[in-house]
Amino acid sequence: MTSISNVSKGSIIRFKGEPHIIESLIHRTPGNLRAFYQANMKNLKTGRNVEFRFSASESVDVIVTERKPYQYLYKDGTDFVMMDSGTFDQINVPEITLGTSSRFLKDGITVVIVFSDDGSILDVEMPTFVEVEVTETSPTTKDDRATSGTKPAIVETGAEVGVPMFIQTGSIIRVDTRTGEYIERVKK
Known about the structure:
It is a single chain. The protein has helices at 95-98, 142-146, and strands at residues 2-3, 12-15, 18-28, 36-43, 49-55, 59-62, 66-76, 79-84, 90-94, 110-115, 121-125, 129-137, 150-155, 160-164, 172-176, 182-185. By secondary structure, it is mainly beta. It folds into three domains: 2-62, SH3 type barrels, CATH 2.30.30.30; 66-125, CATH 2.40.50.140; 129-185, CATH 2.40.50.140. The protein has a six-stranded antiparallel sheet, with no helix packed on it. Strands 9-8-7-10-11 form a five-stranded antiparallel sheet. It has a five-stranded antiparallel sheet with strand order 14-13-12-15-16, with no helix packed on it. The chain is flat, with a radius of gyration of 21 Å.
C-alpha cells in the first residue's frame, strides 16, 4: 500500500478489487475543507471510466506491472495472436482487452502488453498513430476538392475513417488509434 500522493497518471491500482489505470489525478484544497485527490480512472476489466475522490491521507494498492513489446500476427476468432519479439512465444489476447483501437491492428504492428504481477494481461497499449492505406472511398470531383468537408473511407484493416475530400483510394494516411480520426496524408 502506498499513499495516493505517490501515485501518478498511468499508474495501475487495485480499486474495489479490480485493476484500474489512473488517467488523471488532481490535488485539490477547496476553501475551508480538507485536501483531496480527484481521480479519473479506467477499469481495465470492463473498460468503464470511474471518478473517485481520495482523501489526501488515503492509501491505495499499486499493482506491480511489466510492459513487454509484442508483434501482432493474426486474428483467431475473437482473439488476437501476438508474438514476443525476443522469445518468439505466442499468446492470445481477447478482443475486449484491446477495445475499439483493435480496428487499426495490421500485420507486423508492435504493441506493448501490460502484465500484472500474477501474469495476467491488464492492458494492451497501441501505438498512438498508425499508417494505413485507403482501400475504398468515393471518387471526388473537382468541386469536392475545393471544399473542406469530409467523406467516409475504408482502410486496409476494415475500419471506417472520415477523411478530407482530396484523399483517394490507394492513399496512405496517418490515423490516431485512440480516437479513430484522420491526422494527415503520408507522402509516399
